[in-house]
Amino acid sequence: MNLNEYYTSKLESNIVIRDELKRKDQFFSTLRLAVGAGMLASLYFSLLKGSLTIGAAFLVISIAFVALVVMHMKLRRRISFNKKMLEVVNEELAYLSNNISEFDDGSEFKDPTHLYADDLDVFGKGSLYQRISRVSSVEAKTRLAYRLNDNSAQIDIDKQFAVKELSEVSDWRIRFRAFSKGLTTDDLHSRIEQWNALESTNSILLHPVLSWCLSALFPICLVLVFGFERYDLIDWLLLPFVLNLFLFSRILKSLKRDQAFVDRISNDLNAHKELLEMILNHEWSSNTLKNIRLKLEECDHDALHVLGKLTKLVSSLDSLNNMFGASLFNGMFLYHLHVYRSFLNWKKANSKELIEWLDAQAEMEVWVGLSSFAFNHPDFIYPELSENTDFSATAIGHPFIESEKRVTNDLDFDGFKLVILTGSNMAGKSTFLRSLGVNIILARLGLPVCAKSFRLSQMQLLTSMKPQDSLNDNQSYFQAEIERLRVVVDQLDKKHFSFILLDEILRGTNSEDKRNGTVGFLEKIHSRNLKGLIATHDIEIAELTAKKPAVYSNKYFESYQKDGDLIFDYVLRDGVCHTPNATQLMKQKGII
Questions:
Q1: Three-state SS letters, 235-289
Q2: What would the mean pLDDT of 276-300 be, rounded to a whole number?
C-alpha cells in the first residue's frame, strides 16, 4: 500500500465513524431534552402535590439526567477527536500533493543573522520548518525551532532509531497528532505558572467538617418533612436552601477566578491526559523515547491518575455555568463547594509537576512530527556517521523538490577541501548549495536525507548566500555581506570542523574587486578545518585549483541551446563552465 492509499483508507474509515457519531449525537440531544423536561415536571408536581413518590421520581430522573449529560459529553469528545483525525489525514494527503499551507511556517523564528537558517529557508513560507512541523503546543514549536537552529547539534544514531521507531507506528502517530490538536492555549506553560502563583482562598467554609455539616442541612430537613409527612412545612425548606446559596456566594468570587483561569486550559488538560496516556502505554525501544517515558514515571505522583482527577474536577466546575443547575445543586447540598475544595487540594499537591508533564509531552510532539516527515519520504535514506572529517553523497537532491522533477548529483571530497562551483545563470548552483545544507540539517535532526547514500561527520554549518541590506540598521547590502563573512571567519577560528556554503560572495562591488576579494577570502580560510563549496560566475577564481589541487576542485553546471530555447539539465560536471547565458536569457524573454 503506497502513501496515498494508506491516508485515503484512513480518511474513508474516519468518515464512516463521523457519520455514526453524528447520528448518536442527535439521539442524545433529543433524549436529554425529554429527560430534562421530565425532571422539571416531576419537581414541580412534587412540590405542588407534596407527594413523596413524585419527589422520589424527581431524584431518580435527576440522577438519570446527570448520567445522560456525562455520556453525551463523552460522545461530544469522541466527535471532536474524530474531527481532528480527519484534519490530520487531510493535511497529510495535501502534503503528498505538495500543499503545505495548512502547516505552521515558523515565521516568528526567522533570524537573518543566524549562521545558516535564513540562507537555507529553514523558517517562513515553504520552509523546512513548515515541511516537518506537526506540532501544536507553543513549547513544542519552540523546541523544534531550537533544534533547527542548533549549530552544535550532533548526528546521533539513537535519534535515527527514535525516528524509525515512530515512523513504523503510523496509526499511533495519527492518533497522537489528533489529540495534540486539542492543545489550543497560546502558552500553556506560562498559564500554569501564573495559576501556581495565584493565591487561593482560605475561607473557613472550605473546612471539610463545616462544609459537610452545611451540605447535610437541606437533605435532613427534606427527609424530616417527607418522612413525618409534614407537608405543611414544605415552605420552610426554602430556609436551608437559601442559606446554602448565601454561604456559597461568599466563596463564589474566588471560585469564579480559579474557574475562569482553568477554563482557558481545560481542553488542553483533556488532550494532555490523552497524550501522556499514549506515551505511557507504549513500549519504546530507542533511548530517546524511553527517556521521555521515564520522565513521566519518575514523578512523585501517577501522572494519568492525577490528570484524570483534575479533568473530572474541571468538568464538574463547568456545570457552574448552568445557572439553574448550579442554583439547584448548591442550594440543596453545596455541590460546588466540595468540588472547589477538592480542586484546591489538587492544585496544592500536583500543580508543580504539571510543567514536567508538559515538557515530556512537548518533546514527544517534536519527535512525532519528525517521524511523520520520515514516513512521508520512504525513498529517503538515513545518513552514515564518519569519525573523520568526511563528507560524501550519491544522488543527493533537494528534499523540497518533487521527486518527478528532482535532479540528483554525486559529491565527495576526495583529496581536496573546497569546490569552486561555476555555472551559467539559473543552471542550478544555488539550488545545489541549498540541497547540501538542508540535507545536513535533516541528518542532524535524526531524519533521512534526500540521497541514495550520505556520509558525513560532526560539523558546524556556515553559509553566506543571501545577505540582506537593512534600512533600520543603516546597513547596505555590501556591508551586510562583509559582516556575514566576518562572522564566518570568526566561527572558523574556533577550529571546529565546518562545512561552508558560499554563493556568489561580494556581489556588491565591481568584477575585479569582487574577484580579488573572493580569492583573498578563500586563501585566508582554506587552511582552516573545513570543507565546502563556493559558487561563482568568475571563472578566473577557478584557476586556484591549478595552483593548489590539494585544496580546490572545479565543478560546474551547464546550459545549452536547443531549437532556440535555453535548456538546463542541472547535472554536476567536473571542470569549469565557459558558457555564460545572460544575453541568451534576456533575448529569450524579449528584454533585448
A1: HHHHHHHHHHHHHHHHHHHHHHHHHHHHHCCHHHHHHHHHHHHHHHCCCCCCHHH
A2: 88
